[in-house]
Amino acid sequence: YKKMSHFPTDFLWGASSAAYQIEGAYREDGKGLSVWDKFVRIPGKTFKGTNGDVAVDHYHRFKEDVALMKEQGLKAYRFSIAWTRIFPEGKGQVNQKGINFYNRLIDELIANRIEPVVTLYHWDLPQALQDEYGGWESREIVTDFTNYAKTCFDAFGDRVNYWVSLNEQNVFISHGYQMESHPPAVNDEKRMYAANHIANLANASAIKTFHDGHYQGGIGPSFAYSPGYAVNGDPKNQVAATNYEDYAAHFWMDVYVYGRYPKMIYKWLTERGTAPVITEADRALLIAGKPDFMGLNYYQTQTIAANPLVGGVGLAAENNTGKKGTSSESGVPGMFKTTNNEFLKQTDWDWNIDPEGLRIALRRIDSRYDLPVLITENGLGAYDKLEEDHQIHDDYRIYFINEHIKAIKEAISDGVKVIGYTTWSFTDLLSWSNGYQKRYGFVYIDRDEESAKELKRYRKDSFYWYQKVIQENGQYL
Ligand code: BG6
């Protein structure tokens, strides 16, 4: 019924990472400690107590890693800057050695004709700011984050065209202030929505500063969007799915783009006494900080059913962002719950595998926000096996990414403007609480929870496969 489009010739085929998950060198060259440096040391918080002290040692091996990117033919590489390398205490004196490191990395990428996509905040908040004023819970962070962002725009903005402001605000806020699985490991709804609102202000302020400064290129947040489907045509479940979209998606993306919260959720929070305080100045700032593109981190969809209150109680939320959910049920009493989808299979970590859902995510973002989309994450976390001959036959990952690229092509053919696709991830890396066993990369890193070994890099089968996809600009999938 429609003509299939080609990928644009300037499509950004790429891959991603984040500072804490790859760099290591956690105390080198003046770096300050982040909340993750501290959190991982709390017993029981991460798989086998793993941490990012060494990670995959990208800090010392970035040239080798960029050489591999060049060999694979990547057009773009998304990475994050560790705030604590630029400002060890989160504010105050700039640490020149931190600036130097990212200058070297960016220059190396550009020398190899790889477009840097730079994330300002991928969860590694300076511990000093957490200690001083409670991090995201204080409005002081708006100033400090903006100053940090501006320092990065000034230092690197002559060579960077794509900036990501906050990575997955919905995830770091819900995991940090509800599920207790990220720092500061709090479970308090009111504090969660207050911190979230402040993060919205910081995001808007950084974006406004970027626009006011007339730097080259564009900026946007990366949102972890897991589209919701009603489990069936029962209107009750349709209402629940509508609730889910407002609660788990529009609650963030509407604020980014339109500077306002969805009415239904805001009213519900007000009745519960957990709505954030919004001033007139806040509203003006939120409207002024409109992104140039929407960054999309897509892993899975959620299937939604009604979750009626029985005697005032309903199925409660272990995870209601939709992002990190498993196929097991969780939800918000009275509003919705997630449920199993008989049409979908799951990954080794029980995440739904749903390539078509990516097309749906792109279509929904396009029609509601009318912004170009940069897919900043998508990939498969799996156990990989290093064979004796150092090969890694990750045909499951090839299949996964291949199907998702097909879905992107469909969305482009539907008329959605997709700027690029940076998969998660380039090399294997530390999967936050899951240790090193949950692998996402095109490049295998020979290390495990017990030992960093020699941290040798090996190309997986998917490395060569994606190399070919890029060469052919996604034409033969
Ligand atoms: C996203 C993050 O949540 O998904 C990444 O931005 C993360 O940092 C990725 O690693 C995969 O999640 P996980 O828990 O499997 O590592």
Automatic annotation (TrEMBL):
InterPro entries: GH (IPR017853), GH_1_N_CS (IPR033132), Glyco_hydro_1 (IPR001360), Glyco_hydro_1_AS (IPR018120). GO terms for molecular function: beta-glucosidase activity. The active site is at E377 (nucleophile). Signal peptide: none annotated. GO terms for biological process: carbohydrate catabolic process. The keyword Hydrolase applies. Keywords: Glycosidase, Hydrolase. GO terms for cellular component: cytosol. The keyword Hydrolase applies. PANTHER family: ARYL-PHOSPHO-BETA-D-GLUCOSIDASE BGLC, GLYCOSYL HYDROLASE. Belongs to the glycosyl hydrolase 1 family. This is 6-phospho-beta-glucosidase.
